Amino acid sequence: MVDNDRLLIQILLLALLGAGLWVMAPFISALLWGAILAFASWPLMRFLTRVLGGRETLAAGLLTSAWILIVALPLVWLGFNLADHIRDATLFVRDVQVDGLPDAPLWLVDIPLVGERMASWWSSLDQQGAALLASVKPYLGQVGNWLLARSAQIGSGVLELTLSLVFVFFFYRDGPRLSAFVLRLLHRLTGERAEYYLNLVAGTVQRVVNGVIGTAAAQALLALIGFLIAGVPGAIVLGLITFMLSLIPMGPPLAWLPVTGWLIWKGDYGMAIFMGIWGTFVISGVDNVLKPYLISRGGDLPLVIVLLGVFGGLIAFGFIGLFIGPTLLAIGYSLLLDWSRNVQPTPTA
Predict the structure, then answer these.
(1) Pick from 317, 297, 266: which is nearest to 111 by CA?
(2) Is the pLDDT of residue 181 over 80?
(3) pTM
(4) Can you list the alpha helix ranges (DSSP code H) found in 191-320?
(5) Which of 28, 44, 49, 348 has the fewest CB atoms nearer than 10 Å to its CB?
(6) Domain interval for residue 290
(7) Mapping DSSP to helix (H, G, I), strand (E, B) and coil, where does residue 170 land?
């Protein structure tokens, strides 16, 4: 009877755990972002707590407010601007469906070698009018729906960012207690190796954060050099925008592609070609080399594990997978190593 009671209690506990995870499922991504941000900036939190005489709540509030001013507001502004541009593009697609193509831009004719041919091709497309629109109308509708979906994703990303900054306050304030709770759970699961696995997770996340921020800083510096060489006004501001965009996958082209287009519009074709080559092979290319190196540096994980974790995590989980992927593979790799080392040799006859 006692065993039946214990089994019933275990079933109820599992059901309660499943119900709790179900309730928290919509906020898992924001919770992970808050935990990663709090962990990456924890030395700053400890320093601020010492300066304020041990008042953890005040230190957490000040540091969270600083993150809102430094990170959230610029990203929210950028997100709303991107959403406006997507909305303008959607309206343009609808106008093309109704009124046809606008007149060819003047700068199109000035392009060497191919300008006149492209302008005549543009005019022929406009003259064909109804037949062309009838053939491409279904595709234009799909493009419009795709743009609207991207706008909705930007809005959900802004909301997720806001929630993560709310959660980071509680991670700051209750960090030591949460760490002790996680350590007790790991002791129950893994015994003496609990601190090793906790340090493994902490070190992996720290290296990933350093790799992401270090790569973003390198891309921003290279972009600034390219903007200065091309003579683009506001190069420092564009460099800061490149740094923020480098924190998201495929973000840097959103900074240097418009600059390349502006150079073409101004008629500076030589610098436009330079900016396109510099952006493709230097600014965007450094991400594939520097980020895996910084993540693997200082750890005993093979580089192939880090690469698989970074790219596989991005494919499986999105941008948050950049942190989850290497961490999961690092823990799995260490568990397999421990298991293989602790296997007793089979006695021979």
Answers:
(1) 266
(2) yes
(3) 0.60
(4) 194-230, 235-245, 253-266, 269-278, 287-296, 303-317
(5) 348
(6) 191-335
(7) helix
